[in-house]
Amino acid sequence: MAHIVITGHGYTAVTAALQLKQLISDEDWITVISSERFGVAKSVLPYVGMGLRPINEVRVELKSLFRKFDLKYIFANIAELHPKRRVVVTETGQRVPFDYLVIADGMEPAWDHIPGLNRSHGMVHSTMDEDEAMRTDLEFRDFLLSPGPLTVACAPGSNDFQSAYQYVLSVDYLLRRYRLRDKVPIRFVTAEPFLGHLGIGGIGESNRLFEGVFRSRQIHWICNAAIDRVDEKAFHIVYFDEDGVQRGRKEVETRFGVIWPAMRASSYLTKVEGLTDQSGLIKTNKFLQSTLYRNIFAIGEVVAQDRLELMPLHETPMETGQPCSDFLRESMTSTVAGNLAEILCQRYPCYEPTGNGFFMIDFGDRGAAFLAVPQRPPRNIDRIISGRFVHVMQRRMERYHLKKLRAGVTEPMLERLIFRLMKMPRIKQKAA
Length: 432
What we know:
By secondary structure, the chain is α/β, with parallel strands linked by helices. It is about 30% helix and about 25% strand.
């Protein structure tokens, strides 16, 4: 008998619980500790932030889902983790013992890294989580009544470039549809060394693709930039050259700003000696086990990807966080579920994530699908497919993932077959 505790919220933690439930025996049991009562995919939140998706249509109520599949759950924030004693302590003081722990918490936005960032003045917003996205939607409605300059920014250390590109291009399309684009100058500020870098060195001709789209839509961009400070009327930008030498400063007047700040791991993880590296990311082996505590596994953004050889070989002048696409999260989830099932059967872990990347970015009326095998360059497959069908497929994929989650199916046979035909398996199996 083994007790598996999964910490986190959103699709990653829920998918891990559902997949493990199918693999473990009836004698073992799972408890999910979540700080959120709803699960929602990050890729959908930019649409919520501009009013294109009602929040109730894109989220899953976790309590009913856990009850449906007979999963124990606790809704609380985690205060402490004691690996040697094998205990998790919640903020309410509840002690939850575990035999195995799966950490799927993701990362937290570091708002304090940007001086003067005060979201109460109603100028700066975000789509980092469900509450932020709904607040951004309300403020965006007011912005449409009194339009002005709009700035979308990715601060150094941010890792969700996909959402930033999706937001700026979709909001451009939306403003054109409302006949307000002529009243809204749009600027895109990013820590990437070039447009389309995406934190992974670019895919195919992503630089040329995004530069062409931005020019055709009159979106001004600033790369290799950091946000020095924010006030009620402007973003104060510092920009650098290819060698990281400061080139100058610029004041970007802004009426409505959307920002993706730097990310950091939860404080309860960084307090555990030997669990994380200097940047707060969990150190794991190729099986996604903690290098020090072999009964702890990690999934998602909180994993130190450089140790798995998933990050680009060359450093960028400005810090770019490690992105984690939905496909890579699912790959990590399948890896952890398979390895835990092997361990519970008294065998050695033998599954590894493939490190492949696949994601789509919606441009409002069309979009682009990015395929990187593996995610870290140099690659065997490095391809971009763009067109209106990607925009349609993105919407259908949202509905598909929600339907799949509510049905408790993590990897349908057809989906597995499609990715095998694309030569993109989620996991690879090696001899123990």
